[in-house]
Amino acid sequence: SAVISQKPSRDICQRGTSLTIQCQVDSQVTMMFWYRQQPGQSLTLIATANQGSEATYESGFVIDKFPISRPNLTFSTLTVSNMSPEDSSIYLCSVARGGLDYGYTFGSGTRLTVV
Amino acid sequence: GESVGLHLPTLSVQEGDNSIINCAYSNSASDYFIWYKQESGKGPQFIIDIRSNMDKRQGQRVTVLLNKTVKHLSLQIAATQPGDSAVYFCAAFITGGGNKLTFGTGTQLKVEL
């Protein structure tokens, strides 16, 4: 399976600021996803990062708040903009090779605390 | 859409016993399911998967059972060990449904010595 490097692993940020999270994969992958995991809860899909086009956002998530880039098949960033304490969560990058192999691999996550 | 839920938020078992974690899903179009294990401070780790054309699949010390009639799947862990302590999530996938995994709420498995 793919190896994912996600950074930073954790950060404490002031409200009103923005944080960009990076996801680097050791091989080319067709699908990249960004998830949010609020404290003690399950994973919620934020968006699908599309290479060469705008990300596809899930209901409740908007580009202005969570801009995403995917310049190539091995890298993506998620920015959490104008942060508030409610954005304190773990943000996870996930990749899938697509086709008949639906295996989804997750990065170790970015633990964000907004104060 | 799809919602995936787990019956119990916490499961405590004695070391050496077998563990059974259950999961219900709502969308009969779901055709692929994955169980993940998440240890504290880490991302979810793939355990085992099963496609809808199967009703059982076995791995190393783990077995997943799928009952499509009642839209239920379970994860069985044999001879549970302290290292199995984690949160377990089931996730459902619909082929052609945007390639998105929908996650259940999670079960905390605690292994008592």
Walk me through the topology.
The complex is a heterodimer of chains A (115) and B (113).
Chain A: E1 4-7, E2 10-13, E3 19-25, E4 31-37, E5 43-49, E6 56-57, E7 68-72, E8 75-80, E9 89-98, E10 101-106, E11 110-114
Parallel strand pairs in A: 2-11
Antiparallel strand pairs in A: 1-3, 3-8, 4-5, 4-9, 5-6, 7-8, 9-10, 9-11
Chain B: E1 4-6, E2 10-14, E3 19-25, E4 32-38, E5 45-51, E6 56-58, E7 62-67, E8 72-77, E9 86-93, E10 101-103, E11 107-112
What does this structure look like?
The complex is a heterodimer of chains A (115) and B (113). In chain A, strand 4 and strand 5 form a beta hairpin. With 115 residues, chain A is an all-beta fold. Chain A contains no helices and eleven strands. Chain B is mostly beta strands and 113 residues long. In chain B, the strands form two sheets. In chain B, strands 2, 4, 5, 9, 10 and 11 form a six-stranded mixed β-sheet that branches. Chain B has a five-stranded antiparallel β-sheet with strand order 1-3-8-7-6, with no helix packed on it. In chain B, 34% of the residues are buried. The chains are: A mainly beta (115), B mainly beta (113).
